[in-house]
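Read as chain and fold; for instance:
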Amino acid sequence: MCLTYLTKAVLEEKGYTVEVKNKKIENILADMDQGRIDLFMDVWYEGHSVYLYEFPNLEDLGTVYDNCEIGLAVPEYFNIDSVSQLSAVADSFGGMIYGIREDAGVMIATASIIEDYAWENVKIKNLETNELSKQLDASTAQRNNFVTAAWKPDWKNDHFYLNWLTDTTGLFGKGDKIQKMAKPGFSEENPELAEIIKKIYLSEDQLTSFVNMVKDNRNPEKVAEMAQQWMKENRELVDEWVGVNVSE
């Protein structure tokens, strides 16, 4: 969500009209393939590969961030360190892994782990992102053990003092990147716009600063305000994206 609204703010400043549509990842990609959606700024390339292979004609406009990780994590007071331990200690955390939407890459991998290992005593509870944060807040306040889906960058890692479990399965991969995808023929139809999108790239510090600012805010107007504030604080970078000569 944060990358979508940041891009919206950047493009609107350049005079473009931008409409945001909130859908599941597979529906977004299908609609892009059919030309009904122009852009998606938040494709986790490895995590969403199960969907991407169905739409080989989508246009790849490059990487927006290339230091992602996904996995499972626990609070620092929960003394386990490996994904492989989860079934054996399921009673100590209620056998429930708290997660986000089932179409997210981290949740696809988590579901595959449970299925591959035939863990009958470990289940997933899918939540909205803000609901997940509330659950972790309540569990931490009571010092209850929990297991949560985790990803980087994300403000919850430091806020809840999460320890990431060693991935003994390989299903979470060795890292990921966020790609900007577009409908087939997008660059040919919109050459100036495509050049702006291709230039949008964030370092770890830059993306983390915006993620920490937005956190779990789901109000589009509030997120738009935060995007405007972040743009003011990172004016030189934004000018590079939109082709402004910063030396003028």
Q: What stands out?
A: The mean pLDDT is 92. The chain has two domains: 2-66+176-242, 68-164. The domain at 2-66+176-242 is CATH 3.40.190.10 (D-Maltodextrin-Binding Protein; domain 2).
